[in-house]
């Protein structure tokens, strides 16, 4: 029974990931730690109440190093001496700047949440991951952070989001390179354009589909994908009209 921890679990993709994990057999998915800045999400509490103790909420503000360390200490106790198998760094922010770089006045805040906080969370949970059997860390990224696809997304008014997700991809590679000898797998995953508060109702896919496909990647990945940037696979979306494809392949950096 593998253990999982997901940041940003109170809504959107994070909430859907917790719901998906909780729906899988206990023989495959054991303890599920749902972390969020606020621990009062009604939807998350419903999942917890129906989980027979498999899902637990831990308060965690990824932007606050003291909160991160306190959460790591709490999770260590909840695992009862066992390690953490999977860490999903999902918490993140998106900007909207119709004026482009001229209107980008929040780069520091978004960089701190999307990059520095991922580093701080990963660093804090490394001791528990070392004790885990899987040692897998998934960083939720986006094709908007791809240099190779920059021209495709030229018109998207989210410069800070693009910049910080590109930096997150490099952070993923740095961790992958350093911790590969210790048996870790670090992977950047784009979950698709999802119908969430962040993605909007105009997005391509239901959030449940994105969560299902991310969990598929989680459970199928291993050292052979260390340091990769991969797309989800949604049948029928391999070559659609428009900017977005979900073909399960590596994404160009």
UniProtKB/TrEMBL annotation:
It comes from the Eukaryota. Pfam families: adh_short. SUPFAM superfamilies: NAD(P)-binding Rossmann-fold domains. InterPro entries: Fungal_SecMetab_SDRs, NAD(P)-bd_dom_sf, SDR_fam. GO terms for molecular function: oxidoreductase activity. Gene3D superfamilies: NAD(P)-binding Rossmann-like Domain. GO terms for cellular component: cytoplasm. Belongs to the short-chain dehydrogenases/reductases (SDR) family. PANTHER family: CHAIN OXIDOREDUCTASE (CSGA), PUTATIVE (AFU_ORTHOLOGUE AFUA_4G00910)-RELATED, SHORT-CHAIN DEHYDROGENASE/REDUCTASE. This is Uncharacterized protein. The lineage of its organism: Eukaryota, Fungi, Dikarya, Ascomycota, Pezizomycotina.
